[in-house]
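Because showing beats explaining, we think one record worth quoting, sequence and backbone structure tokens together, and here it is:
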Amino acid sequence: MAKSTISSPDNSGVDTDAPAGKGRPTPTRREREAANLRPLVAKGKEAQKAQRDRVAEQRNRARVGLANGEEKFLPAKDKGPQRKFVRDYIDARYSVGEALIPFMVLVLISSAIPALAGVTLYILWAFFAVALIDVLLTGQRIIKKLGEKFGPENVERGLRLYTGIRAMQLKFMRLPKPQVKRGQFPTL
């Protein structure tokens, strides 16, 4: 860095040794932004292929993690020990709601028969009412068990709805996938 002699403004004859400047021009805004610019996508075919492979691997790992019930891959609606308890409890039991979809298919087929067409709608509504009662009773039972395990004041909100949604799905269609077999109820 070059130093130059600058005389003081009051002409006292005192010379100070101070730098005359930074030695280069101030960069323009365009130059500073260009220096900070990084590509959002990879340049070149090899880099793009590597990025695609990396993203595919992350996606596959998240899919497998969700199916296995790993906590870090679960969506917010499925996270937590209470929700895991609900999932395990529902997956361990037979529920009427699981049979609702296959039963609806049978009702749809039987409604094509003229002699049964009038009765099938009533049968379907009766089956739906039984499934709804089963879900409500199961929700009450689970809330009671969660109160015993975690304390009544610590039971999360929305678990009855979570119970109902999970109980109305076919077991093989549930996500996260069931981690327990039928009859393996979670312990308190």
Summary: Helices lie at 29-36, 45-68, 81-92, 100-110, 114-150, 159-167. The chain has a mean pLDDT of 87. Strands lie at 3-7, 15-19.
